[in-house]
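Hi R.,

Here are the chain sequences for the assembly we discussed:
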Amino acid sequence: MALNSNSKRVFRLAATYIVLIIFCVIAVYPILQVVTISLRPSDRLLSTSLEIIPENATFDNYVKLFTDQPFLLWLWNSILVSGVVTVTGVVLAAMTGYAFSRFHFIGKKFGLLSLLTTQMFPATMLLLPLYIMLIKLGLINTYFGVIIIYSATALPFTIWTMKGYYDTIPTSLEEAARIDGCNQFQAFYKIILPLAAPALVITALFSFMTAWAEYLVAAQILQDSKLWTLPLGLKSFESNMSTEWGLYGASSIIVTIPVVILFLALSKYLVSGLTLGSVKG
Amino acid sequence: MNRLQHKFFIAFLVVPSFLILFAVVFYPFVYNVVISFSNMNLRHIKDWSIIGPQQYIKVFTEPTQPNFYVVFLKTIIWTVVNLTFHVVIGVFLALLLNQREVKGKPLFRTLLILPWAIPQYIVALTWRGMFNYEYGSINLIITKYLNLPAVEWLKSPTEAFIACILTNVWLGFPFMMVIALGALQSIPHELYEAADIDGASWWHKLKNITLPLIRPVMIPAITLGTVWTFNNLNIVWLVSNAGEPSDQTHILVSFVYKAAFNLYRYGYAAALSMVIFVILLGFSLVFMKKTKATEAAY
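And here is the predicted structure of the full complex:
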């Protein structure tokens, strides 16, 4: 009997590993594809081989990106825009989420619901009105326009995430801080904010991703190629008469690496930051 | 405590966010409503005028190829199929990862989250390359290892649509997995121990403990996932290269994008956007009312 249940357990564990490994392969394979493309020498970009490391693998495409293409410029532009959007997004979501979690005020329920409602706007609906508005305000070809739009895009979701997380932190902590002589603002940023670190991390990640990987809005607003962010630059490899697959692959890898590192470093927080808010009580 | 100070503090926290949201979201929304009742298009871009609900009538009656109802049906199929796979795969993997005996969890979790971490436009263009008839790795695998005939993924409507769905399933399961993992971790272990004492089977524990307890977390995630999938322009637009073959591969949002930015039918696109918005709003209200998802949130 004991042996039987033991072998059953071993079998189940083995099956678990096999299934997990299969799914990992599926998850990683397309990414390896991009690596392969980026390493192919330019005379064999179209290949029917399935090897991961291609024959005559070369870093030529990576070198070309930095020597023949304005890749560094795009990279810098993207870092600038994403950095400002991340800081703005975190500050705003941390503050507003806190108010929604702790205080009662006129229009609170309406505010929360309208945030939720914005998630139902079709992706393209606001693009045209925004475009016309930005022309009228003279903000086409400025970073100010994109930064404001990106900051607002992630905001409804991040405010909800922050609010959900603050809800799990007992209010007695602030009460204690107030008794010790903190004012409302100090109680918020000295006591509560550090405790909300997992949710802050999620908020930062989402704000950053919005700006780092956005193409449609950028394509309408940043028409001057000196202002291009990475997605616009990458797309330009694709939209010429023939796609520069090698350059495209190499730049995709470089664009993806920081995001992947962020995700991996923060994956511990992802689980708690996203869900803790919704499992309370 | 000073009441005025308290009010000032709340305003300080809330007003900046809502100013930005007003400028970027709420005001353009109203603007879009106005455009949807106008004749704005490439010929009437400055001298447009309000013409009443004609654009809405066009949305429902114009015999475009394909027409509204066909695209709507495809959007529903797209959303339901994607969400089903996202949730089933996501919860399944989370259950596997949540077993105590499994070693190397951080590594598995890391690799499985990767699809979520890649920027969507890169995902889309990469998969488009993988679906290439001659050089794409999917056909190469099919022909070399499975000895099956190659598939014309991007040239026929059904296959192109399946290609989009495969791409999006790959992209979307990590989000559900992460949410489900978080929910699973919050279930107290004593519940399972008690069930073990009662001699409950694996299936009974899943049905009576696990699923009911992760439900409150999964329902809002599913609602959000539904809306995001329904609205996912990137994948369909980039994998099918703007709806190829001959506009047969569209969901509603890509159809709108085409109308607005390729055909410059601004008024029509604005009206169609409003219709999509109302559909989603209606769905969410009914779904959340039925499941009481947000009740605890206030």
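Chain A touches chain B through 94 residues (CB under 8 Å). The mean pLDDT of chain A is 86.

Let me know if anything looks off.

Best,
T.
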